[in-house]
Each structure stands twice: as structure tokens, then as C-alpha cells.
Amino acid sequence: MRLEKSHQAVVLEAGTNHPGELAPLLKMIRPNHGVITCIGREHLEFFGDVAGVAGRKGAGRGAAADGKLFVNGDDEWAGRLMERTRAAVIRVGFAASNDWCARGLCLDKQGVRFQVDGPRADFAGEYRIHLLGRHQVVNACTPSPSG
Question: What's the pTM value of the predicted model, to 2 decimals?
Fold first, then answer.
């Protein structure tokens, strides 16, 4: 990856489709912060069911104890993921119960425009992403680790 001491941050994706794959990756990466956008059916081949996927993604996935774990608070598996981390949890999604909430979606040919509400005014406001799909909004409204 050619990372040097001058680099201040890096974003890496660690995925799995077999039990036992994720733990060694996370041990090597040693993430400060983690993001789990959703628990879905795309990794079922060797996990049997969605509960198996949730178990693997939640097992050690994410952040250091002094870091933050960002989860999709609207996902039915969010509670299970939040129980399995020592990091501070930040919930993002569409429901008003999330820490960061997207509302007022307006889709057009150029993408999606939406409003983000949350605890910090400097990150709240109107956003536009040049991607189509409601699911892309949740990915986009995850604030920085300092938020």
C-alpha cells in the first residue's frame, strides 16, 4: 500500500465470505475506527444465513476500544453489533432515533440531495451525492471520527 509515516489516515475495507477470515485481517490492520454499513445476504455462501453473517461482522469487527464504530442504526442487526464492541457507537440512518439522521431525500438524474441532522452543526446541513440509490445516502451521512 506504500503507506509512510507522513500519512495521517487510511481507509481500508476488510471483508469476509468464510468463517475465520476477518480476525487475522483486523489484527493486521488494527483499525482505530470501524464502519458497518449493513448486514446483508451478499456473503451467505459459507455462513448459512444472515445471522451467521452478522455474527462474523460483529466478531471483533471495527474499532479499538478508544475509537468509534459507525453502524447503520436502521439495520435489524445493529443492536447485536453494538453489544459486541468496546468502542463508542455512532448510529446513522433514516430513523430519528439515530445519532445522525438523513431526511428529505430528493432523487434526480444527477444523484441524491438530502438533509443531515446530528449533534454537531458543522456537519449537519444539506448534502448532495452523485450516486443513485437510497442506500448510498446512509453511507454518505457517516460523519468523520471526530464527529
Answer: 0.76
